[in-house]
Design goal:
- The protein is of the alpha+beta class.
- It is 24% helix and 34% strand.
- The chain contains five helices and 15 strands.
- The chain has a five-stranded mixed beta sheet. Strands 12-11-15-13-14 form a five-stranded mixed beta sheet, covered by helices on one side. A three-stranded antiparallel beta sheet has the order 2-1-5, covered by helices on one side.
- A hairpin with a 5-residue loop joins strand 6 and strand 7.
């Protein structure tokens, strides 16, 4: 009986701890987020219900607030915007030491574009300051069939152009989670089509196929269904663009790696 009670107590403690950590994370996001044009907010002043206001931040980063008029809050964190309005009310002699609270109702100023081969391309609001590239791709419906594993992130950091290629699958397959960088407003995530190879000749299913990770010529033959009765693995030719974009014709080994845009020809058996 005592053991059961202890287990229940332990479970309750874990639930409370988890809730506390989640609330702390949300509070941190709230502290770091900077208001911008298009955001909709609700402003309240303790014991002054007549000063409650829902407003949209203008393109100039301002709002019109009762008693104090135009206030610039664009670019400020929520706590700093609260202090700015409170100071204006106090300095104007309207309310002494007012307690101002701001609730963000709708975030529109910080948006990230996700384009290319995703299921729902478009612009999406950035609701927290810690949203990662993989999360934005998930918000866009995930990577669509035929897409590459690599996403390209462009934007601006510290006033300079920013470019980074991120191996989405590698984040989880190879535990490179530190490569899953946080996005900021104005970023663009582009997912390109997957690299392809082409196979023709005496093969069961000629056509174009996705180049998989660490793919070999042998595996490429399997993708094409293998040689026909008249075909042979001993009569392979590989057409590949070299460093100077010159077309090279090679005799590949079955364990050689496949590269993007490779063209494999399976020839006839002489016997």
């Amino acid at each position: 009986m005592k053991s059961t009670n202890l287990q229940r107590l332990f479970s309750a403690v874990l639930l409370i701890l988890g809730a506390t950590l989640a609330l702390g994370a949300r509070a941190q996001d709230h502290l770091e987020y900077r208001l911008g044009a298009g955001d909709t907010i609700r402003i309240t002043v303790f014991q002054n219900p007549n000063l409650t206001l829902e407003s949209r931040v203008s393109e100039a980063g301002t709002i019109n607030y009762p008693l104090i008029g135009t206030v610039k809050i664009g670019g400020l964190t929520v706590p700093l915007a609260e202090k700015t309005i409170a100071r204006a009310l106090d300095d104007g002699g309207f309310i002494k030491r007012p307690q101002v609270s701001i609730l963000t109702l709708q975030v529109r100023s910080s948006q990230v574009s996700v384009v290319g081969l995703v299921n729902k391309p478009g612009r999406f609001p950035l609701e927290t300051s810690s949203t990662r590239v993989s999360e934005m791709i998930a918000i866009a419906g995930g990577i669509s069939p035929g897409a590459a594993d690599v996403a390209i992130l462009t934007g601006e950091r510290a006033g300079k152009p920013y470019y980074k290629e991120i191996d989405i699958a590698g984040l989880f397959l190879h535990k490179k989670l530190d490569e899953d960088v946080a996005v900021t407003g104005g970023d663009v995530i582009y997912v390109h089509r997957a690299p392809m190879f082409y196979i023709y000749g005496e093969v069961q299913r000629p056509g174009s196929y996705r180049v998989e990770r660490s793919m070999t010529i042998r595996q490429a033959l399997v993708q094409g269904g293998g040689p026909t009765l008249r075909g042979t693995e001993r009569s392979l030719r590989l057409h590949r663009r070299g460093a100077n974009n010159q077309l090279e014709v090679l005799n590949p080994g079955l364990d050689d790696p496949v590269q993007p845009d490779d063209v494999i020809r399976v020839g006839q058996s002489l016997f």
